[in-house]
Design brief:
Layout: H1 19-27, H2 32-55, H3 57-70
Organism: Mesorhizobium qingshengii
Protein name: Antitoxin CcdA
Keywords: Toxin-antitoxin system
Amino acid sequence: MLRPKSKPLRRSVNIPISSQLIEDAKALGIDISRAAEAGIAKAIAAEKTHRWQEENKDTIAGWNDYVSRNGLPLAKYRLF
């Protein structure tokens, strides 16, 4: 029997946030904790992307050079 996916564990943390941001979020009914979590997740994804691009920049440059000289492999099979 498959077990349902459990929710990720959550931890409380203390972070300083601008008083004005907190007031505005509360006035708009924004869940500050969820908004912060979403922002952190977005920052993590962006940093992982940046690091991957940096780690693979030589390969990417090599591939781009190959394509500029030879065209796309299998281009004759493209339907557009």
